[in-house]
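Task: complex structure prediction.
Instruction: return C-alpha cells for all chains below.
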Amino acid sequence: MRVAVIGCGAVGSLFAAHLAQVDDVEVWAYDLDRAHVAAINERGLRLSGAADVVGRVRATSDAGELPPCEFGIVATKSMHTRRAVAAVAHAFAEGAVASVQNGAGNEELIAELVPQVIRGTTFPAGHIVEPGHVCMDTRGDTQLGPFEPKPAPLERVRELAEACTRGGMPTHALEDARGAQWRKLIFNAASNPIAALTGLTHGQVWELERTQRVARGVMAEGRAVADAQGIVLDSDPVELFEWSAGRDVAYAHKPSMLQDVEAGRATEIDFLNGAIVDFGERHGVDAPLNGALTALVHGLERSRA
Amino acid sequence: MIGSLYAAHLARIADVSVLTRRPEHARALEEQGLRVSGKADFNARLHATADPGDLPGADLVILATKATDLEDAARRLAGRLPEAIAMTIQNGLGAEEIVRAHGARPLISAVTFMSGVRHGDAHVEYELDTETWLGPYAGTTTVETVDEVAQLLVAAGLRARPFPDLRPAQWSKLIFNATVNTVAALTDLPHVAAFAAEQAPTDLGHLVHELMEEGKRVAAAAGLELHEDPWEMNVLAVRRGETEAAHGKYAHVPSMLDDVRSRRRTEVDFITGALVREADRHGVPVPLHTAMYRLVRARETAYR
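Output:
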C-alpha cells in the first residue's frame, strides 16, 4: 500500500511516521517546507513525546515527484487545502483521499479535485521541534468514513483505518463520520475565536462565566445546524469543553487561533464558525453568534496582517 | 482630552478653573498654560488645582472625566458649587444619575463628537472639530439656559447645538458607540472603511449593521425616535475618515480601542452595558450586544 501525507506539519507527521512503522506501507510526504523535507529524507521522520519512533518517509516539495498512491491523507491548514490538493491530484486518479483537518468544508474542496474522498477527524496533536522532528503532545482516536457526495467505498476506508491502527494511530472506520467531525467542529468553534478575541486560554474561557456563556451560545447554534442535517454527534461538545478546561487537562492551552492571531497568520475561522454559518444557511438555520465571531476574527486578521 | 478642549477654548472668553486629579497636572497647567494644536492653534491661560477646596465660585461646571471616573469626580464636588449648572458629556448612559446621587443640582445633558490627542499635561491636539449637543436634563434646567451655554461654547470657538430634548441624540450616539467601540476594541481596527463594508457575507459591515439594528429595536421599545440613524453616522464617519486618510493624517482610534491598547479599564459598562440593561428593562432580546459586552469584559480580564 502506498500512502501520501499532504501537508506534513505536526499532525501530518504523526500519521506519516506511524504509518511508516507498518511493513507493507510505503509512505510519502508532500510539504512546502524544504528544510523539513530535507531532514526527513536524510535522517527519517522522528517523533518524541507521547510517541518514540523514527519513520522512513520519502518527502518532497515537488508535487510532480509523487507516484500514483492508493491513499492520501490531507493534513494542511484548511486555508491551504485547495492549493495543496490541486498540486497533487494526479497521484490520486485511482486513489482515495482523506482529510484529517480541522473544521468542515475541506472534504467538499477535495471532492472538486479527486474522485474518492474520505471524511476524517483526528484528536492527536503535536508541535514541530525542529526540521524532521515532531513532538507528539496528545494521543487519541481518529474517525474516518466515506464522504457521501463522492464516497470512497467503506472497504477502502477500513483498509486505511487498519493501516493507521497497526502503525500506532488508533483509527475507526465508520459509515457516518459526521458525528465525530461536528462534535470537534462545534467544540473548536467555541474555544478558538473566543480565545483569539480576548487573549484568554482554553481553560479561562470556560472558567469566566461571561465567556462560558458566549461559548455555550456558540455551541447551541452549532448543535442546531448539526441537527438540521440529521447529524448525531458522537459525544457532547459542551461536556468535552468542560472536561478539557480542567486544570489537569488543557487549562493553560492557547488555542491555535490565538497563536495564529498573535503571530499575524491567517486563521481557520472560515472552516470553523464560517462553516457553521454556511451549513446553517443551506439548511435554514440562523447562527448569528457564529457569524459575529467570524466577522470579528476577520477584522482581527486584517489589523494584524 | 475632551476636558482640555473645553477648558482652553472657554478660557479665551471666560474665567476658567480646571480641577485635576493629579497635583502635577494642575501645576503644569498653572505654569505653562494649555496649548491647543491641530484644528486650532493657541495657548490658553487658566487656573488649575487638584484641590476642590481651591475652586472659586462658578456658573457652569463641565464634568469631562471618562465615565469610569465620574463617580469619583462627583464625590469630590459633593456640597461644592451648589448653584452652578453641571454639564455631563460622558459616553453612554447614566452620567446624570451618578452626578445627582451626590447632590441635587441643575443639570445639562450633553454628548460630544469632538476628538483629540493628548500630548502631555499641558498640550492637546484638536483632531475632530465636530459639535457638542446639549439639552436640559429631566426638567432641572430650561431650554433658555441650554441655549445660553450653547452660545457660550460657540463664542469660544467650538461647535454646539442646543436641543429641547437630548435623548434622541444621546441614543443615536449610544447605539453608534456601543457598536463601533466594541468592534474596534475586539478587532484592534481603528474606525476604517471595513466597518461599512457589506460585499462579502462575512464582511465586518454586516455585523456593524446588525448590532445597530438591535440597538434601534431597544430605542423603539423605549419610545424614542432617534435623532440620526446610527448606520448613516457610521457610513459618514468612515467616508470622512477616508478623505482625511488620503491626506495621510487620520485613522480615528475609538476610545475603547485606545483603552484596550493601553490595558485600561474601558467604558463598556456605561455604553454597551447600559444598552443591554435598557434592553432587559424593555424585554428586547439583544444577543449580539450581550456577546460583545461579555467579550470586551473578558478582554479586560486577560490584561492581568
